[in-house]
Amino acid sequence: MLSECIILAGGLGTRLKSVVNDVPKVLADINGKPFLHYIIEKLSTQKVAHLILSVGYKHEMIEAFCKQQHPNLKISYALEEEPLGTGGGIALALQQAQSENILIINGDTFFHINYDQLWQLHKTHQSSFSVALKPMKNFDRYGSVIIDEKNRIKGFKEKQYQAEGTINAGVYLLNKKDFQKLSFPQKFSFEKDFMEMYFKDFGMYGFSFDNYFIDIGIPEDYYKAQQDFKTIFSQ
Q1: Other beta carbons within 10 Å of 22
Q2: pLDDT (tens digit, 9 = 90+) per residue, 66-98?
Q3: DSSP per residue over 14-47, as a string?
Q4: Taking Cα atoms as reference points, which of 41, 51, 7, 71 lies closest to residue 234?
């Protein structure tokens, strides 16, 4: 059972500045509620008991929101005094995690999957690192992840137009002990310096879910989320 989750919530939201310029990206307003609210609500329904937020930019606003709106949740904060990259942020947050396997999600994406299904696949394959993949067609905004017939990650394609492929949807399961055996600088990219450097040796797997996915990193998708979430969270 998954009990802990790291949420990467330190992003500056540079590409979103034209529409969201006064709050951290995870607090971007979606139909009257911060984007982070929807992430936490989903995690709560799947009984994740401890949230570790990797924060930096305007972290006080994030902490105030969580204290006010989610006072009964166990929430810890891993504060980056300076930007450490996705990898550095995760490594810092892992210091507060107690579980052997940790769920990690990007705070500016929403992938409407059952985290327990990913956990079961992670266990079955005895994976040290698993990533949830989203099949896409006719895209150029994302790179893609290549897997073999056994779901093992075999490589990555850079951002370019692709007629079809599977993208990294920003939802991971990581074995803490295995990851901490590796050596990284304080500041590093989780995608470039870990995933792309170690996929041949680390035991990385990718599992595809054709579920709803949104990345609010650009204004077009930020506005799209406003409409989509009316249906997804109507109940």
Answers
A1: 8
A2: 999 999 899 999 999 888 999 999 999 999 999
A3: GGGTTT--SS-GGG-EETTEEHHHHHHHHHHHTT
A4: 41
